Amino acid sequence: MKYLLFFAILLLFKFETTAQKSAVLVELFTYDGCSNCATSSRNIKDLFPPGDSLLAAKVVLLTYHVDYDENDGFMDSLNDKRWQDRQRQYARFGISDGIYTPQVLLNGRSSFSASNRARLFREINLADTISNQPVYDIKWKFDSLGILSAAADLEEIREGLIFNFVLVKNRKISNPESGENVGRTMESRNIAIDFLSLLPKKTLNYTFRLPKGSTLEDLHLITFFQRISDGQILSLKESFFTEIKD
């Protein structure tokens, strides 16, 4: 009997790998309660089909819902203090002139307001795609207990880098009942819900228990290296979780 149970659990595992992607990493720091964030939400939405299809093929988006603007009592359900810390780190690198919403960073190298549509599209169009070095391979599995496990197998170990696993929610629609966006529909994509940074070694492991009500189809994984000295992004991947069939 115990052998049959073990076999049944194994059937729920799904192993996947993801190809390296030449892209621009767009990191957006936002908040559903600020008025300019409604404008940036529309701008970001147009980076995805049926928007500007040429830019959509070039962009990997990471959205961080920060929590330091909650002075009006508005609560964004996806806010997290960790994203404010990440934003401050970019300021310490000298990449940005402070922390604010809606702030966007491209490849960890340039920073400006995401409400500036013309600049957003222009700078993405002109930005160099991220180097695909160092090379690594991502594998993941999902078990019957609702635990997602991922492993990054590095081809080589380089000093001065850190490796990041970011689990994201694919999409969220909200209709704020307070704050500056009452009556508006706010849409976010690729919203960070978990973030793990590790110093490189041959194999790096990440685990996350899915919250109740979540499914793999709601989420995907973004991974990349980042230089410790200046924050530059290297070697980017998106891993989408395919449906597990019986």
Short summary:
This protein is of the alpha+beta class. It is built from five helices and eleven strands. It has helices at 2-11, 35-45, 53-56, 81-93, 117-126, and strands spanning 24-30, 59-65, 103-106, 110-113, 136-142, 147-154, 161-174, 186-198, 203-209, 219-227, 233-240.
> Could you tell me how far the N terminus lies from the C terminus, measured between alpha carbons in angstroms?
20 Å
Number of domains: 1
For the sheet with most strands, the description reads:
4 strands, mixed
Helix content: 10-25%
How many helices? The count is: 5
The low-confidence runs, each spanning 5 or more residues with pLDDT under 50, are 1-17
Portion of residues in beta strands equals 35-45%
Order of helices and strands: HEHHEHEEHEEEEEEE
What is the number of strand segments?
11
State the secondary-structure class: alpha+beta
Could you tell me the mean pLDDT? 84
Shape verdict: globular
List the strand order in the largest sheet.
2-1-3-4
- Estimated radius of gyration: 19 Å
